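Q: How would the C-alpha cells look for this protein?
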Amino acid sequence: MSISPHPTKGPGFWYIVHRPDGNKREYILFEGSEAEARSLDHEIRGVPQDVTYPTIVDTFPRFLPFYQNNKRPGTYTDLQYALKRLLPYFGPMRIPLLLPHHYEAYKTRRLADTYLPGKPTQDPTCDTDDEKLKRKHVGKVTINRELKYLNSILTWAQEQGIVVNHRPKLFPKKQAEGEGRTTLPLAPVEISLLMENMEGNQRILAMLMFLAGLRKTEAFTLRCEDIDLANGIILVRGKGGAIQPVPILDDLVAELTTAKGDRKEGWLVVNPKTDKPYGSIMKSLRTACEKSGCGKHIFHHLLRHTAGTCMMISGTQQRAIQGMLRHADIKTTSIYTHLAGQFIKDEAGKMGSLIKLTNMSKK
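A: Here is the predicted structure in C-alpha cell form.
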C-alpha cells in the first residue's frame, strides 16, 4: 500500500495503490490533502493501531473530521498547508515518545529550508539564475505557525486519553516578529491603482478587505444573505462565531449590488474551478501590484492594515476604528497610529528630497 500524486489531475489528487489479494494492484483515486490520503491509506490497510503509543498519522482518521467540523474553513485550509511540512518529519513518530530535541531538530531543519516568493512549492533545482537570487529562508513566524498546528493535534490527542509528555516550544515572540520586514500600508494612489488592475470576481474580495476592513476568511466566505444593501450593512461572522455589523461604504455599494445580483443566499464569490470559496487571491494581487508599479510587499492582510491606516490618517477616532475592524482590545487598534506615523514620515520624506534637489539645482 502506498500513495502517489495523480500524474495528470494536478494538486489535490492522489492514487492509493492497494493489493487486496497480494498480487493484483488496485488503484483508488482520492481527492483531498496528502494528510487525508495517508489517513485513508492507513485505514484501508487495517493495521492494528497501538492505542497507547499511536503515531501522529494514526490520529488523523478521527482528528481531521473533528478539526474540519469545529474550525473555520480558512483555518482548516491553513492546517493542510502546515501538514505538508509537519508530516514528513513528525508523521511516523509516536506521540508519547516525542521529546524536546525532536521539536528543536525540526526547527533547525526548517530554518535551513528556503522558498521562492510567489512560487513557494518550486523545487530549488528548477530555479533560474534570477530566481536563485530571490530565494529566502523560512522565517521563525512561519515555523511557529506550523508548530501551533502540531500543538493542536497534541491537545486533541491528550483529550482522547493519549499521553503527551512534551509539547513544542516556540521561538520567542520578539525573535519571530523582529525578523520580519516593516509592514508599510499602501498609499491612496497605490490602492486605487491596485483595485483598477484587479480582474474578475477577485476584485470584489480585495475591495471587501480594504473598504470594509474584512479579514481574508471573512471576505472569502461572505454569503449573500449576510449583505443588507437596504440598510447598508454587512453581517460579518467573525472569530468565535460572533456576528457583527459592518457599514457598507458608498464605493462598495455598486460592486456588491453587481456581485450579488438577484441571489438571496449562497457564497457571494466562488472559485469557478471548484465552485467553493477562494482560499487565496495572492496571484491576482501580485499581478495587479506589478501592473500598478507598486514595489511594496503585498499580502492579503495588508489591505486590512491599509484600511485601518487610512481611517487613522483621515482623523477617524480610535474607538470608531476599533468598531469597524472589530478589535476586541483597543491596544490592537493603536498599531495603526504607528503605521500612520511611519506612512506620513515616508510621504514627507519625498517632499524633503524634492527640496534638496531644488536647492542643488540653484547652485
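Residues 350-363 have pLDDT under 50 and may be disordered.

The radius of gyration is 24 Å.

Upvote if useful.
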